[in-house]
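Our consortium's second objective concerns turning raw sequence data into structural hypotheses that experimental partners can test. To show how far this objective has progressed, the report includes one record in full. It was chosen at random from the queue rather than selected for favorable results. The single chain below, 339 residues long, was entered without modification.
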Amino acid sequence: MFSRKSIILFSWLLGICFIWCLGKTDCVFAGQQYMIKVATVAPEGSTWIKQLRKLDKGIRKKSGGRLGLRVYAGGIAGDELDVLKKIRIGQIHCAAFSGVGFGQVLPMVRVLDLPFLFRNDEETDLVHRKMRPLFADAFRKRGFELISWAEVGNAHLFSKKPVRKVKDLSGLKVWAWSGDPIAKETFSAMGVNPIPLAITDVTTALNTGMIDTVYAPPLGALALQWHTSMNYMTALPLAHSTGAILISSKYFKKLPCDLSDILITSFQSAVKELTLILREQTRESVRLIRESGLSITPVPIGSDLDEFYSVHDRVARKLTCKIYPKEVLDRVYVILKRQ
């Protein structure tokens, strides 16, 4: 039989061990590593990927190695619609989406991708800033956190033949991103029946002659080498391509508060820096594209320009209540002082 003194001593030691184990458990939990799988169609070596790699190093340093990014570049995880499916089943946690991708989550955000909506960077930045709270709340209700808007840039037309007027598109084999109602409606309003393809199939389609006209930011066209199959680029942007960094709310909630704060602040700072870099590189890309032999068709004037802008009105009306509520479009117009 144990003496009363032995039992007390044993209980005391057991209590100490229990408390010590709790402390070790907390310590292990505090040191748990979180590796966020991030997907993007941006090609390896592009400014986007370089900035993500830099962001990863910064996040690892700030978090003491507890948080990091595993980047899947160049569409290796699939097209944006494939990535979206993988996020929903937990294979991917986060992605840099263009409107085609995040429009599947929250269609009304596609109002930002309407053709000929923005006339300059200041208008774009203003609308993004003013509309962010509304869209962030709506994304959260759909199971995603809007970490940050992400610059994709103004999309321009690249073609074999010059496009100076809307009617010049007639007869061209125009690509439209598969699953993108904005692109489909835009080209339909221009009298074109576009050829829908995944972005990963565009290069092959250009090489085989299946298509002869595409749209992309100059930097993207240069990185993907689409410009090598073309003769002309329009100076007038077709639309501003809005991007967004989205992360699964389910995964985001698993992050300790200090790590989620590091993730958000680091991403927003990196994207802000990236936007400035991309806008400067866009100007450089246009110069390189011109030097490669492409002709830049100037911005139309007079009735020719009005005809392009009228495409916006037709597309905006057609898609109201189908993709976005009228109130959302009206709010954008109020911010732009177009009413």
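The partners drew two points from this record. The longest strand covers residues 144-159. The radius of gyration is 25 Å. Both points have been shared with the crystallography group to help prioritize constructs.
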